[in-house]
Specification:
Elements lengths: L12 H23 L3 E9 L2 E9 L2 E9 L3 H6 L3 H17 L6 E9 L6 E7 L4
Parallel strand pairs: 3-4
Antiparallel strand pairs: 1-2, 2-3, 4-5
Length: about 130
């Protein structure tokens, strides 16, 4: 796909900052999940439908995790909208097709991250029936 000529090849500074903050939040979320006994299988896994922030396993449960970072945890919780949920569910279906053999439960979690706060892990934040 050709780049539009009016776009600079270097991302705007605010986009670079947002990207760095997102990476930091995902790292904090992954470390938090590991401390809770999860094994991280993939981070920032990309599919044609979108990206899954974290794919993890804990015992027989496979977990697809969306990480949201905001200044306040409550603001982060409000940022997980229905359109994103559908995108994550679709990407998870592709991940499962590319990684056959899972026989346990599947869950969609959210980890909320804010400065000076312990991450908040919401198990089964949404499901594929939405």
């Amino acid at each position: 796909m050709a780049r539009r000529p009016d776009r600079d090849a270097t991302p705007r500074p605010e986009r670079q900052i947002a990207f760095a903050l997102g990476l930091s939040a995902e790292s904090r979320a992954a470390a938090y999940l590991v401390a809770k006994g999860y094994r991280i299988l993939a981070r920032r896994w990309r599919s044609p439908l979108g990206e899954i922030d974290i794919v993890a396993r804990r015992r027989a449960t496979l977990v697809f995790v969306e990480v949201k970072a905001r200044e306040k945890l409550d603001d982060a919780a409000e940022a997980v909208i229905m359109r994103q949920q559908r995108r994550i569910i679709g990407a998870a279906e592709i991940w499962l097709a590319n990684n056959p053999g899972h026989t346990g439960d599947i869950r969609f979690d959210v980890v909320l991250v804010a400065p000076k706060s312990i991450p908040r892990h919401i198990e089964a934040a949404f499901d594929a029936s939405n």
